[in-house]
Amino acid sequence: MISDQSSGIVLITGSDGFIGSKVALRFAETGNFDVYGTYLSDRALPPKKITPIQLDITDFNAVYEAVNKIKPDIVYHFAAQSSAGFSFGDPFSTYKINFTGTLNFLEALKNFSSKFIFISSSEVYGDTQAKKASEDDPISPLNPYGASKAAAEIAVFQHSRTFDSDYSVIRPFPQIGAGQNGRFFVPSMAKQIMDIKKGIQNPVIKTGNLLPVRTFISAEDSVELYFRSAFSVQKGQIYNLSGNEDLSLLQILQKMLGIAEIEAQITQSNDLLRTKDPMYQLGSSQKIRKVTDYEPCRLIEEDLKEILDSFL
User: Fold this and answer.
1) Which fold has domain 8-177+216-244+281-298?
2) Is the pTM of this model over 0.85?
3) What pLDDT does residue 2 have?
């Protein structure tokens, strides 16, 4: 089983992002891994303990050069256009980044024996219809983001079969933690709540559809599952990554209001409604918990408080 005494060269794409940065730090803090992290813009850099590689993943020559320079033992591919809402407005760049960017790494890694872990998304399932999706359930994405991830999954497994490569897929369900981009639901609600608490916003919160239900997981737990996955997930396999709680967006918002100890009117804004929002995205992650020997244990309320405090 995994221990912090393992070692190797780890490449994490999207190491400037919400989860990628945390996973990069998890490896670096063991002191036994050489950790490289890609980033796109100087506006967002990887953590200081990571060797930074500025990289446009849609540029094959640049990807090829980076892979041949680093010669990674393990690759986590987090880099993506990760907004389902944005993907409706620009499906072309979504596919270019999420599909072509993934394909570039698959092609660049053909001459290496690297373990490649592709970070997909629960959005590939579409609407799970009030049941917890398992990895064997069919996929039916409802937005270009989910479809681009599904297409990339197919490419990953084609390469794995054709070249007998150690490639696998992880499908994360919604992750909650400090540092997430403000365009996502939890941080966007947290900012409004704390602006109300500070007296700079009227006690009115604008939201989209609050009825959808998701299986949320703490970012802290997901990072530990990702870390252990490098040494436990099997070639050619798919793993859901989800927590223990199925909560509606309304329940999440109510928890946040309670933690902040404020009352506010909730109003739905048409500008915040997604074109096609799955009512249910529920997932079982027993498979990854078994192979990693790790059970998610952090309370969502702890993360919500940290996120709210970050806007003080």
Assistant:
1) Rossmann fold (3.40.50)
2) yes
3) 44
